[in-house]
Each structure stands twice: as structure tokens, then as C-alpha cells.
Amino acid sequence: MKKRILKILRIILIALALFITVLSIRHHFKSKSDRELFADAYGEYYTTPEGERINYTIYDSSSDKVMVILPGFGCSSAHYEFDALAKDLIDLYKVIIVEPLGVGLSDETDRDRSVENYCSELHGLMQYLGFDSYTILGHSISGVYILDYANRYPNEVEAFIGIDATLPRQWEICPKAALPENQYKQDKILKYLLVNTGIYRFFTELSFDEYLKGIPTITNDEKPIVLAMYCTDQLRPTQLREMKSLRANSEACLNEKFPESIPVLYLLSEDNCNLMSEWYDIHKEVIVNPSSRVTILKGGHYLHLDNREGVVEEIRKFANQYR
């Protein structure tokens, strides 16, 4: 019986090794064709003084108000992830979806992923576009950068809307596994074990139609491009270094609050509020403007995908309030 069990286990392990080998080879060749498929698929480019290109897409409208949308950590394509949300808000704002360096079609960079560099790159883009007054909407990790950005350019930031946004004090209340240094180690392991082997691609392909339900504006022609980007460019080198730098960036902004002149709307995930009892409180403590508020919405961390209708409704209320 023991020999029979060992033989079965060997067969299973050999079959698993062959399966992963096939997935890895397939991923290698598919990634090459994927990059040709999504090269310059959308948007325009701003070139930084260092020669690196930042991709952005403008959803134009008759509104004289401007909204800048920034993605969270690990985003494969901010353009596609926020497409439905941008189109829902087009009557209120000219919307600009920005892909920071290392995200989507933007270039990789060897420069430090410091809060100073992030703010400088974003401000350079806004100057290039000729906008000196705008609302910023940021998801997740962008919350740390924009807290600092608002203090650097208080006369330009008209308002801030955070979708389950990261804050410098977050690391005092989050689970140990979510600490930046631990997340960085986990992501490096996931990069080698799941992404590079093609396992991530395999499961993404199986579940992608379900994911796209959160972005109903994606057309049938765009679906192969979106899938290619999500399968090919997960946990890019610049993004990994961004996570590695997150602790230092948070400490640099630890004592900052939003300037009193800037109204803030924080939209928080009910799931995260249940997970971290102080999630609401730490967002409340960084806002000063009396028109600001913190609202809890049903859904997970990606509220703009899980509960887009609720997000849009709250943004409309807020926009009417601070204008």
C-alpha cells in the first residue's frame, strides 16, 4: 500500500511539473505577442525631464472642472480599470486618467519611487497639460502621495476624493501580513511562483469575464487587449520597488493633514472597516476642511469595481457641495 501511494504521488508530481512547464513556456511566448497587441493601445504621453514617458487619457467634456484619476498598487491598466467610472463622471468633469511610471503603458523607471519623485512627475504632467486647478481622485496607495501633493500644491488641488485610500498611519492598525515590508516579500515570491510560471495567466483567463462585470464599458474589441495587459504586466519591477519604498514614504508624510482649504471625500470599504476597527478614524483625523466627510460603502477594496454606482452617487453629492 505504501509503495502504491508513493507511486501515485510521483505520478501526480510529474504531471504537475509538466503542466507548469507548459504554462511557463506558453506564458513566455504569449507575453511577447501580448505586448505587440497592447502597444500604444490608448492615450497620449508626457515625457518627464528624465526622458521617461507617462501615459494619460483625457475624457473631454463641456465641463470647466478637471478630475485627475490615479490608480492603486499593482494596477495593470489604469485606463481600463477606471474607464466606466470616468464615463459616469464625464458630465461633471474633464477626466484625466494617469498611469504613473511602472503602470499600464507608462515606462519603467530606475528612479526612486519616493513621494517627492511621484509628486514631481505628476505636477510636471499637469503643467504640461496647462491645468492649474483640479480635483484628484486616488485609489489605495495613491492616497499617501496625494496627501503630500496637496500640501505641496494647495493652490492647485481643488478637492481630493480617496477610494479606500492608503494613509501613513495605516501600518499601525493593519494585519501584520499587509505591512509594506511583508507585502514586498510576498509580491516577489508571487512574481516568481505565479506570474513568471504562467499560473497567474491561466487563472486570470478562466476568471476574466467575471472581473469585467465591474467594467461594463469595455467593448468586445478591447477585451483581448485588457486581458493581455492583465496577464503580462503584473508586479512590474517599478511597482515592486514602489512597495519596497512605501514604509519610508509613509513615514515622510506621517504628520501631514490636508490643508484647510481642500475639501476631502474618503470613500471607505465596509470590508476593510470591519477588518480594521480604526480604518474610519485614521481617515477622519487627516481632514480639516468643514465640507469634508468620510463615508463607508458596501464592497471590497476596489469600490469603483464592486460598488461603482455608490461611488458615483457620493461623488456627485460631494461635487455639488464644494463647488
Characterize the structure shown.
The chain has 323 residues and is α/β, with parallel strands linked by helices. It is built from 13 helices and eight strands. The chain has helices at 2-38, 78-81, 83-88, 115-129, 142-152, 180-195, 199-211, 223-232, 237-252, 270-275, 279-284, 303-306, 308-322, and strands at 44-47, 53-59, 66-70, 94-99, 134-139, 157-163, 264-269, 293-297. An eight-stranded mixed sheet has the order 1-2-4-3-5-6-7-8, sandwiched between helices. Helix 5 links the parallel strand 5 (134-139) and strand 6. The radius of gyration is 21 Å and the shape is globular.
What order do the helices and strands come in, and which of them pair?
Blueprint: H1 2-38, E1 44-47, E2 53-59, E3 66-70, H2 78-81, H3 83-88, E4 94-99, H4 115-129, E5 134-139, H5 142-152, E6 157-163, H6 180-195, H7 199-211, H8 223-232, H9 237-252, E7 264-269, H10 270-275, H11 279-284, E8 293-297, H12 303-306, H13 308-322
Helix pairs in contact: 1-8, 4-5, 6-9, 7-8
Labels describing this entry:
323 residues; 49% helix; 14% strand; globular
Gist of the model:
The protein is of the alpha/beta class.
Unreliable runs, pLDDT <50, ≥5 residues?
none
The percent range for strand residues is 5-15%
SSE string: HEEEHHEHEHEHHHHEHHEHH
**Biggest β-sheet strands, sense, barrel:** 8 strands, mixed
What's the total count of β strands? Answer: 8
Structural class: alpha/beta
Tell me the overall shape.
Answer: globular
Helix content: 40-55%
For the CA atoms, what is the radius of gyration? Answer: 21 Å
Give the overall pLDDT as a whole number: 95
User: If helices are DSSP runs of H or I spanning 4 or more residues, what is the number of helices?
Assistant: 13
Distance between the termini: 76 Å
The neighbouring-strand order within the major sheet is 1-2-4-3-5-6-7-8
